[in-house]
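chain below, 321 aa
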Amino acid sequence: MKFKGFQVSEGLQAKHVVVDEGHAGQRLDNFLLGQLKGAPRALIYRIVRTGEVRVNRGRARVDLRLALGDRVRVPPLRLAASTLPASPGQELATHLQSRILFEDAGLLVLDKPHGLAVHGGSGVQLGVIEALRALRPQYKFLELVHRLDRDTSGLLLVASQRQVLLALQAQLREEHMFKRYDTVLVGEVKGRRHRVERPLHKYVLPSGERRVRIDQQGKTARSDFQVQDVVGGLSFASVRIHTGRTHQIRVHAQSLGHPVLGDDKYGDARINACWREQGLARLFLHAAELELQLPGRGSLHFAAPAPEGFLDLRARLGVSL
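prediction:
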């Protein structure tokens, strides 16, 4: 099997790795990314889906949480061609360095720019995590605590210690982490507060693109919208999410009849095109605020300022911050 510079080699021996305390609780896909350095995430998904990877001799899903003592079969991978891992150019490196808001006690907090994927794969050569690993070679461990969509900007958590990763992911699962987003919705939303509790289900289009829809068989999800300003056919709002499902805010906003401005998957194509012609070509979704409990440091609060696109839109409509 060949995949963008890699191939699974039938002539090499697979290895079997026993999950230790440092990796117990980790998702299978993230575990494999650590075992198969440089392999794109899309390849990881493929070898799990085709059964090349086994957990305790059985097939498994990429989102399986590994347990202490699990035995994972890792297929042999080798470079199919002479390739080098992607590294960030000087401009990107400098830009990302300037956007690190906090770095201490096993945690990095980054104000991610929109348009930059959090990890490589699916046609993306270099993401935030790969760039940070190149910028911080002294860290033997550097993993995403959670994800943001490529076109979403704002606060992104990256752990540089295994115990910090597990502690923060537990807070996310147990809904103990405060997460607030800023967004702009298409249309004039009636009423100031809207709680959306609708289950979300991921599915795949024939093209291979992943999408999400509201489905009673999906995973529970809750988003609390608070409208701040309504002007020019748009509604400025903040959203607190109590769960962290894929595309959660975008699909919940669509279900209200007011999709996120600039959303090319669930949004209003005509309205998006109008604003794009005026130079505002982005998804208007920004991870603005986080509050968490960091082991050894207690409660920490982080805020990412409104990005340039939001400021430009407010200025054009005469909306104050």
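The radius of gyration is 21 Å. The first strand starts at residue 2 and ends at 3.
thats it, cya
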